[in-house]
Write a structure and sequence with these properties.
The complex is a heterodimer. Chain A contains 20 helices and 29 strands. By secondary structure, chain A is of the alpha+beta class. Chain A has three domains: 25-33 and 471-612, Aldehyde Oxidoreductase, domain 4, CATH 3.30.365; 38-141 and 218-293, Aldehyde oxidase/xanthine dehydrogenase, a/b hammerhead (Aldehyde Oxidoreductase, domain 3), CATH 3.90.1170; 304-468 and 618-779, Aldehyde oxidase/xanthine dehydrogenase, molybdopterin binding domain (Aldehyde Oxidoreductase, domain 4), CATH 3.30.365. The longest helix of chain A has 28 residues, at 538-565. The N and C termini of chain A lie far apart (68 Å). Chain B has five helices and five strands, in the order E-E-H-E-E-E-H-H-H-H. In chain B, 35% of the residues lie in helices and 15% in strands. A five-stranded mixed sheet of chain B has the order 2-1-5-3-4, covered by helices on one side. In chain B, a hairpin with a 2-residue loop joins strand 3 and strand 4. Chain B is an alpha+beta fold. Chain B has two domains: 2-72, Ubiquitin-like (UB roll) (Roll), CATH 3.10.20; 81-148, DNA polymerase, domain 1, CATH 1.10.150. Classes of the chains: A alpha+beta, B alpha+beta. The interface between A and B is large, with 50 and 51 residues.
């Protein structure tokens, strides 16, 4: 049975491997497609949020009278009001229960909600929020990771890990620290190996915080119906939100309903606790229907990518083998932990890269500061450590006088190797990806390196990421009598194309053509539990659940057909048009089969399946695990670019990106994920950056915050699908949502080093930074 | 104030405040292809055509559009060559920003029926697709350009 469940080949339903048009393409292009904010909800009061203008302060008083005096204002709610109603349950978070939806007694970042106006319309709510005045008592803020580690000022008095996770319990109540989590990886003896190695390189690396800027902004509505809470929200984690809200309000799971439609992008921003605790707490305690829509400026302070500092070293022997790697990784997680502790661990474990390294020592810490809370962002912390290891590996190769691609090729992990974290590698073709991108850009072709003020170079980088493990996915498949199907899953299609992929999997198993499978949007009253839509996990995990449900359905159809035809089930198989008996060559259509089984038109058959992954938790001292993850993502990027030495401007002539996706269910969509990730990564490499001044974001509007536009595109972009089937993937498939982003920034920086001979260790590579590096070079 | 707006060829009578933005009025009327991405005219998601010219409806007062012809992407219809080209080239991912690109492309092709890639990029520069679908969008505009002339 298990070999059937995990059969790698398409079952000839002619859907898997085809570039089906994205579901709802036409309505999305015409603009008639409904996003979450378009879902009809009861008439709501609008919320306007008054936000802290201090990075760290005690709240001494909140003056709300002038706001209340404005016509249309119904109420003003403070953190104290909510704390009185909900007590300690007010504090939520996916790893630590440390964040109140509205500040209680103390504010910890500029932009934190302090009071919320309920008004009859949006404009009034926002205007009234501006009229609120808060009396603060200043507390010394902690503004960067080094101050957080070295100083004696603390963002929180004590750590509050969520009681749900046994591996965090030992941190409960810990005081006098800003470090909420520390992951350590120890393998071999890195110190001795560094000392004995003939070549060692080191660096101080920095990747700044960035903003996701999904063009669809955040919105959420909540109201009470009977004794239940209804929630419509832009979330990529509906199952998580239902649990979090049920816990906060002390409700049963079936008293909380969370719905979301397709999202207009997310990239990790719309997950875990965003607007939902705030609207749910107010709706439930006030018994009022409320709606919150953020402005873009508010979205900038809601969640960010982690700024990360890495101090790292890498050594090689005389034969060009990497023998030791050390990294001290500091994640600036802002005022609330969010999922930062998990990011510190999941990224720390790959901080020395996808290489055969016998001696490794990594310390990866998640650190509180008085800044907006950082959370998941496409890549889950991995692009920031990749920035470090791919810069170092490049320097090692150059110091040894070796081609950086060939140096990587010798050291990269291969099938069956044990990775530095202690897990055996499978279906992660780094070498295939590396070869593909270098070949694409003509790595060994001659290059005119100097043209006037322009200097040209080439760079390459690889990336590795572990898929989130353990997780749970479920699928419920309903086959309708007319041979159409309805698929119930809680995966959120936010542009990655899951609605299309899942439909293709069902269609392939059951021989249904395009447009016959409808995927239902997440509704926790209807669609079954799914851990999260994130971490590139859906194609593999939900895809496996969907495939198993479809296969169960197929087996039942065959059983029924065999009975109807009076033959054995083993004589029958599903084929285009229905079930066919091999001995009699008789074919029964699915329509006739279901009609005669139930004796009525319009009847349905239902099959369901669960797919759950397991891991071996890592050792708390060494970080080692024999199964740290269900599978790995492998990717590579190569760039050919020019640097204008007069202006510092970088022009990318060719950017190639490759990802090992196991098997591409829909090649067109896989290419879009690879390129979309690459373009986002290019922004991170060249200009994307949240700039802070004393804890205050100073470029938090789209007038000031630069995003890649059509004019920033490289002259040539090449996506490459590498297929190294995974033994337990649906048809061999794995995900691809993050693979394209991870190696981009170091590939570009390595090309810059090739062009101008300078290693820049802080992102982004702005013209100012390049120019000043050139000036420093000239002064030496 | 009472306002008469001609949207996609149909006249709508709406009541709105003097300072109401075209974006909000269009959304209240159900034209949800018009979307606020930034509120400052920097992302292009709220782009509509007013008398054939692209405007950011988040920066446009509804009251100034009385007596004009407003077009949103809903009004193009599914057989419109630009709509067809975007669908056929797969020029979308999440799709949220796409109607804005479709309206910019419509404006471009009315002014310049056969743009080259650089002219397309010049014209669409003000629109942001965070999913990074730019390559397919350029191809779609080229396809629309050639299919319209056939």
């Amino acid at each position: 049975m298990s070999s059937e469940v995990f059969s790698l080949e398409s079952q000839d339903g002619n859907a898997v491997g085809q570039s089906w048009k994205r579901t709802n393409s036409e309505s999305k292009v015409m603009g008639t497609f409904r996003y979450t904010a378009d879902l009809p909800v009861p008439k709501c009061l609008y919320l306007g949020v008054h936000r802290a203008n201090q990075p760290h302060a005690r709240i001494d008083g909140i003056e709300t009278e002038s706001a209340m005096a404005i016509p249309g204002v119904v109420k003003v709610i403070t953190g104290a009001d909510l704390y009185d109603a909900l007590g300690e349950n007010l504090f939520t978070g996916p790893a630590f229960s440390d964040q109140p939806p509205v500040a209680w007694q103390r504010v910890r970042y500029v932009g934190e909600p302090v009071a919320v106006v309920l008004a009859e319309d949006l404009a009034t709510a926002r205007a009234a929020a501006d009229e609120i005045y808060v009396e603060y008592e200043f507390i010394t803020p902690v503004l960067d990771v080094n101050a957080a580690l070295e100083g004696t000022d603390y963002v929180h008095d004590e750590l509050r890990p969520s009681a749900v996770f046994p591996d965090l319990r030992h941190l409960m109540g810990k005081r006098d620290t800003n470090v909420n989590y520390e992951y350590n990886l120890i393998r071999g003896d890195s110190e001795t190996a560094h000392q004995e190695a003939p070549v060692t390189v080191s660096g101080e690396f920095w990747t700044p915080p960035t903003s996701h800027v999904a063009i669809e902004n955040f919105s959420a509505s909540a109201w009470v119906e009977e004794n239940r809470l209804e929630l419509v929200s832009t979330t990529q984690t509906p199952s998580y939100v239902r649990q979090a809200i049920a816990t906060m309000l002390n409700l049963r799971l079936n008293q909380v309903r969370v719905r979301t439609l397709g999202l207009g992008g997310s990239f990790g921003s719309k997950m875990y606790d965003r607007l939902e605790p705030l609207v749910a707490a107010i709706a439930w305690t006030q018994k009022l229907p409320v709606r919150l829509e953020l402005t873009r400026e508010e979205a900038f302070v809601l969640t960010t990518r982690h700024g990360v500092a890495v101090s790292s070293r890498m050594s090689a022997d005389a034969n060009g083998n990497i023998v030791a790697a050390t990294a001290d990784v500091r994640y600036d997680t802002g005022a609330y932990a969010d999922i930062g502790p998990r990011i510190a661990a999941k990224s720390g474990m790959v901080a020395c890269g996808p290489y055969r390294i016998e001696n490794a020592k990594i310390k990866s810490r998640c650190i509180y500061t008085n800044k907006p809370s950082a959370g998941p962002f496409r890549g889950f912390g991995v692009p920031q450590v990749t920035w470090s290891h791919e810069s170092l590996v490049d320097d090692l190769a150059r110091d040894l006088g070796e081609d950086p691609a060939r140096f990587r090729r010798r050291n990269l992990l291969r099938e069956g190797d044990v990775s530095p974290v202690g897990t055996v590698m499978h279906s992660a073709d780094f070498i295939g990806c590396l070869d593909a991108v270098t070949e694409a850009i003509g790595w060994t072709d001659p290059l005119e390196k100097i043209e006037g003020s322009w200097k040209w170079g080439r760079g390459v980088a690889v990336g590795i990421k572990a898929v989130l493990t353990p997780t749970v996915s479920n699928a419920v498949l309903q086959l309708n009598q007319d041979a159409s199907a309805t698929l119930l899953i809680s995966t959120v299609d936010m542009g990655q194309g899951s609605d299309t992929i899942m439909a293709q999997i069902v269609a392939d198993v059951l021989f249904l053509g395009p447009d016959r499978v409808r995927v239902i949007n997440p509704d926790t009253d209807v669609t079954p539990y799914d851990t999260i839509t994130a971490g590139s996990r859906s194609t593999y995990h939900t895809g496996n659940a969907v495939k198993k449900a479809a296969e169960t359905m197929r087996d039942r159809l065959i059983e029924i057909a065999a009975k109807q035809m009076g033959v054995s089930a083993s004589d029958c198989k599903l084929a285009p048009g229905g079930v066919i008996s091999s001995s009699s060559q008789r074919l029964i259509s699915l329509e006739d089969l279901i009609l005669s089984q139930f004796g009525a038109a319009g009847t349905t058959m239902t099959a369901e399946a669960n797919f759950t992954t397991e891991w071996v938790p890592y050792d708390r001292t060494t970080g080692q695990s024999t199964k740290i993850t269900e599978h790995w993502f492998a990717g590579a990027a190569a760039a050919e670019l020019g640097v204008d030495t007069r202006t510092g401007r970088i022009r990318i002539r060719h950017l190639a990106v490759a990802g090992d996706v196991g098997r591409a269910i829909n090649p067109a969509l896989v290419n879009q994920q690879l390129l979309g990730g690459a373009i986002m990564g290019m922004g991170h490499a060249l200009f994307d950056e949240i700039v802070f001044d004393q804890g205050q974001i100073v470029n938090g509007t789209l007038l000031d915050y630069q995003l890649p536009s059509i004019k920033d595109m490289p002259e040539k972009l090449t996506p490459i699908i590498v297929e190294n089937p995974h033994r337990t993937g649906p048809f061999g498939a794995k995900g691809v949502g993050e693979t394209g982003l991870i190696p981009i920034a170091p590939a570009i920086a390595n090309a810059v080093r090739d062009a101008i001979g300078i290693r820049i260790t802080t992102l982004p590579l702005t013209p100012e930074k390049v120019l000043s590096a050139l000036a420093n070079q000239g002064n030496k | 104030m009472n306002l008469t707006l001609n949207i996609n060829g149909t006249v709508h009578s709406v009541y709105c405040a003097e300072g109401d933005l075209l974006l909000d009025v269009l959304r209240r009327l159900g034209f949800t292809s018009v979307r606020e991405g930034c509120g400052v005219g920097a992302c292009g998601s709220c782009t509509v055509l007013v008398d054939g010219h692209s405007v950011s409806s988040c920066l446009t007062l509804a009251s100034r559009c009385s007596g004009t012809e407003i077009r949103t992407s809903e009004g193009l219809g599914k057989d419109n060559p630009v709509v067809r080209a975007f669908v056929d080239e797969g020029a979308l991912q999440c799709g949220y920003c796409i109607p804005g690109f479709v309206m910019m492309a419509t404006e471009l092709l009315s002014e310049n029926p056969h743009p080259n890639e650089k002219e397309i990029a010049d014209h669409l520069e003000g629109n942001i697709c965070r999913c990074g679908t730019y390559r397919e969008i350029v191809k779609a505009v080229l396809l629309a350009s050639s299919s319209a002339s056939n």
